[in-house]
Amino acid sequence: MDVPDLTDDLVDRIARQSDAQSGAYSIRELERIRDNNLVAMMRALKARNWGAGALLNRADTGLQAANDAVLDYPDIADIGQPIETVARAVPLDWTDYNGHMNEAKYLQVFGDATDRFMIIVGCDAGYIATGGSYFTAETHIRHLDEIHAGQRIRVATICLNGQGKKMHVFHELWQDDRLCATGEHILIHVSLTTRRPSEPSARIARRIGTIEAAHAALPRPDGVGRCVGAPR
Fold it and tell me: Under CATH, which architecture does the 75-221 domain have?
């Protein structure tokens, strides 16, 4: 290959070009940009189940199998309280032109929370492989406050109904002590063979019923059952 000599002039030229490209950012900001890009690449690899992403998927599967082997609810301190289903930082690429979290990402966060709750009640990859799963039938999201890149967020989930084929959950999205959004979701258990509603397994019915009964003693969350435009 035709490699240029590493002269002082070349070093100065590279430095000037580097400063022109990144000089508007501090070292800390560049670190965040780097980390956000690395996380985005890892998410893409996980979605394609390739390379390091495949390794992460295998690790996730192994952790879930280990959890199921130990206890019914291994990582829930108190089943009678709202269950933490998401805890993460907001990446830079989740923000929009207004400088806060894009509304589509609220749905993604609540979708991740629902997926986590499904795993907790037993509707994990192994169960889905047997031909059963939950499909979302209805969603209502309230946007209550702004969320910015880098902030730590968490979702607390309450099970309002887990009887028969229906699963009704209510998510609260928090940033520290600020309630920033709520998501109310109704899911229906289906057979992946017929694509029609079906009864969940006895194990799932038992687990979701236990959580529903424990959450029945909680105060009814503000916003449950609201429709678009309804007064507070």
Answer: Roll (3.10)
Domains of the chain, by residue range, sit at 7-70, 75-221
Model pTM score: 0.72
Whether 182 and 141 have beta carbons less than 8 Å apart is answered as: yes
- Give the residue carrying structure tokens 């002082």: 8
Output helix, strand, coil percentages for the chain, rounded to the nearest 5: 40, 25, 35
The 10s digit of each residue's pLDDT in 93-133 is 898 888 899 999 999 999 999 999 999 999 988 899 999 99
10 Å CB burial of residue 180 (0-12, 13-18, 19+) is buried
Instruction: Give the Cβ contact number of residue 121 at 10 Å.
Output: 25
Instruction: Indicate the residue type of 144.
Output: L
Contacts of 193 (CB under 8 A, 6+ apart): 131
Cross-strand partners of 167: 187
